[in-house]
Amino acid sequence: MKIGIIGLGSMGKRRIRLIKENFDATEIFGVDISEDRRNEVNNLFNITTYESIDLLLENHKIESVFICTSPLSHSNIILNLLEKNINIFTELNLVDDNYKMIMENSSKKGLLCFLSSTMLYRKEIEFIEKKIQNSNEKIAYRYHVGQYLPDWHPWEKYKDFFVGNKRTNGCRELLAIELPWIIKIFGIVKKMTIIKDKISKLNLNYDDIYLLMLEHENGCKGMINVDVVSREAIRNLEIYSENLHIFWNGTPNSLEIYNINTKNREKINLYKDIEQDSRYAKNIIENAYLEEIREFFETLKSKNREPRYGFKDDLYIISLMNRIEGI
Question: Comparing C-alpha atoms, which of 206, 210, 208 is closest to residue 195?
């Protein structure tokens, strides 16, 4: 399979590395307008790169493309590639620009539009989902996710990539990462209350901390706190009911469940091998990124198989975020 990686920043390089290391029957080509990035990727991975999508398609018959550019550029790239009968894997879009047209065109042509939602592929989330499905109780939860924005990409200024843009701001991205699994596990939102503020001196034109109180249609209730202020990168989750108590700090070795009989917390080990990139926070692991790539390729083989997370799912998540003023 000939694959194009559009956008050779941190996520584009991650996708290239994972595909090269785990999928032999692929040939990868890169696209980026930056000559420095093209040269860097050529040196790192020894792949051919181009400065435009048109040049890539003129030289190679590409079957699938991974779109790893900034979110506001995604919709036009997707529509262009669908017209050329190319299957799509896209990183988070954060906005729903042209979604109706994208869904209509992909359906009409029988092409796959696969959306990244990496947390859905974490083994901890899969474990939590099964526990809650088997509990038959109303569940309560609290969840804090945050990291100081200048630490997200320490190799570049935070104003120089998409989180500096109010439409695709850092708090919005955190919610776009977390809400898909929260909605999948706890259900559709019936009521939402929001508190927000700017508590840092970061040069941002948006609030840097949001607290959401959610009431789900099935009776579950929770509080989500996302921020771009926390100096230590944090992902801290507690889920509880009368007969269930789960704790997770976001890392592969921090999942615990409370044993009601022994009155002790028990560690839940779900991974044989853990792959991490030292440039990122310790609660970010490469395993889930690999699993969603694997699912994309498997979905391509099975034409009748729906993606785990698609544009229709994302429309609902974006509609929730759009209800939050300023995000």
Answer: 210
**How many angstroms separate the CA atoms of 109 and 88, rounded?**
12
| Contact call for residues 49 and 38 (beta carbons, < 8 A) | yes
pLDDT of res. 274: 67
Distance of CA 165 to the CA centre of its chain: 18
DSSP assignment letter at 77: H
Q: Are 40 and 9 in contact (CB under 8 A)?
A: no
Quick one: 43 and 99 in the same domain? yes
Q: Is 31 helix (H, G, I), strand (E, B) or coil?
A: strand
- In this structure, are residues 207 and 171 in contact, taking their beta carbons and an 8 Å threshold? yes
Residue 272's alpha-carbon distances to 123, 127, 252, 254, 287, in angstroms, are 11, 15, 10, 14, 11
Residue 306 CB-density burial (10 A; 0-12 exposed, 13-18 middle, 19+ buried): exposed
Task: Determine the pLDDT at residue 30.
Answer: 98
Of the candidates 146, 323, 325, the one whose C-alpha atom is nearest the C-alpha of residue 226 is 146
Same domain, 80 and 155: no
Q: Are 266 and 256 in contact (CB under 8 A)?
A: yes
Nearest to 126 by CA among 268, 235, 244, 286: 268
Q: Does residue 126 share a domain with residue 111?
A: no
Side chain identity at 224, as an amino acid letter?
I
Residue 35 maps to which CATH number? Answer: 3.40.50.720
Number of domains the chain contains = 2
Residue 208 has pLDDT above 80, yes or no: yes
Q: What is the pLDDT of residue 325?
A: 85
In the block, residue with structure tokens 């509080």: 223
Task: Report yes or no on 290 lying in a domain.
Answer: no
CA-closest candidate to residue 214, choices 242, 193, 233: 193
87-90, strands of its sheet edge to edge: 48-50, 27-31, 2-6, 64-67, 87-90, 113-115
| Average pLDDT score, the chain | 94
Confidence of residue 156 (pLDDT cuts 50, 70, 90): confident
Examine the domain organization and report whether 100 and 124 are in the same domain: no
